[in-house]
Amino acid sequence: MSFLDQAPAKKSYGKLGYDRNPFPTRGEVRADIYHSREELKELEQKLASFVFNGGKGAFFAIEGNRGVGKSNFLQHVELKLQGLDAAKGIAVRYVGSQLVSPRHLGEAIVAALTEGRMQTWISKSPKVAPYLVGTDLGRFAQNVGASKPAGPDLAQAAKFLMRWLSGHQTYIQERTHYGLWAKERLDPSAAFPYLRAIVDDMVRLGILRGVVLLIDEAEDFLTEPDASDAHAAALKALVNSFNFDHLFIVMAGQEGAIARVGTALTSLSSRWRVKKIEPLRTSKAAVQLAQAYLGDAASKTNRKPGDVEIEAAFGRLASKYSSGVSQRDLLAELHEWVEQAAQK
Questions:
Q1: Which of 86, 117, 195, 292 has a Cα at 20 to 30 A from 344?
Q2: Range with lowest mean pLDDT among 100-104, 146-150, 233-237
Q3: What is the rounded average pLDDT of the residues 235-255?
Q4: 155 burial class (0-12, 13-18, 19+ CB within 10 angstroms)?
Q5: Per residue in 270-305, pLDDT tens?
Q6: Which backbone phi and psi does 249 adopt, to 5 degrees?
Q7: Cis omega (within 30 of 0) on the bond before 225?
Q8: If you ran DSSP here, which 8-state letter would residue 280 be given?
């Protein structure tokens, strides 16, 4: 008899006070749920101010061991900004699980701006700073300002601009059509000032209020020894081009990774603020985190796990990890507790 011949018994979550298991499995990130951390209060306040008011951004670096909640914070910010009406003027992009090269950074900002915003910008007779008038971007802006593309031509112009700014291949017929002289792919060192100019003009026209760039797993910068300097230099070039005007960057990485990136370029580390997320060290903190995932069920007197079971789960983990309990480990432990209780 095969294990696939008989369906497993159905689980009853209702008797525990909810419709499904409220806790994520190990490795799962629930971006829709975030429990505010005292260590990140300054970052939360600065980011909220930027989202609602625009203006000058900032650069925050979050460090901490695996599973303490760094990715949860970044993905929660992305999800909220994508769905918040008041944040429609904010372009947001999460970059995770890949090496951040100059090209990737440029692509991330281009993707955040979206084709829709690019079309709107092109349709409003765009202008660039005087120092860019004789450049390829200046000629592009002059060309579309004079030709005023609409319909399919407008969509085509926006798509071309996004491919070109991302450093992707373009064709001589396209470049000639839009007045570009360059024959090669656009170098990221040139793309960052161009992106800054476009963002500035979008803000002037009321299309945009600012850009939020969320970079996860900074330790990936250092997976190839010869690449780390280039990755740090790409971040420096981006920061120097924008000087935080209409740009807010949050970068997260494991403990030590942030310091290593900063060592590669001390001028970069002097421009960010480092925040360290600590593991859970008290049963009270564990209960507060669990209650955030329980949501409305947290107030039910009959819900399970109750505070006693949560504290017991924290105690079991704390006896194994003297340095503290990670958010990931506690939530995975509670997920398993619910699965077993739902089968009884």
A1: 292
A2: 100-104
A3: 91
A4: middle
A5: 888 999 999 999 999 999 999 999 886 656 666 788
A6: -115, 135
A7: no
A8: B
Mean pLDDT of 125-139: 92
In 3D space, the residue among 191, 314, 184, 283 whose CA is nearest the CA of residue 242 turns out to be 191
- Residue of 330, 342, 341 lying closest to 24 (CA atoms): 330
Query: Where is 172: in which H helix or E strand?
Result: helix 172-177
- Give the containing element (helix H, strand E) for 2: none
d(CA 209, CA 57): 11
State residue 92 phi and psi, 5-degree precision.
-130, 145
CA distances from 284 to 207, 290, 308, 312, 315 (A): 45, 10, 11, 11, 11
pLDDT number for residue 235: 82
Token digits of residue 7: 């369906």
Q: Which residues are bridge partners to 202 per DSSP? A: none
C-beta neighbour count of 257 within 10 angstroms: 20
Q: CB count, 10 Å around CB of 305?
A: 22
Tell me, what amino acid is at 42?
Answer: E
